[in-house]
Amino acid sequence: MTSKVDETLSYEQARDELIEVVRRLEAGGTSLEDSLALWERGEELAKVCRRWLEGARARLDAALAEEESGEEGE
Hints:
Blueprint: H1 4-7, H2 11-27, H3 32-72
Helix pairs in contact: 2-3
């Protein structure tokens, strides 16, 4: 479940935090509990990024469809 705070993150903020989470996981040296918490946070951040990207794709698709329908009407 994504928190309310995550819903206010921009794509860039979520991506940057996700990069940091991955860096920390790859570096190792954390306890199992901390690693699991980082993994869970990474999953939440990935969902935020995915929602942003899906929204951008939908906007592009809508703009392209509108452009095509405008060309057909000419």
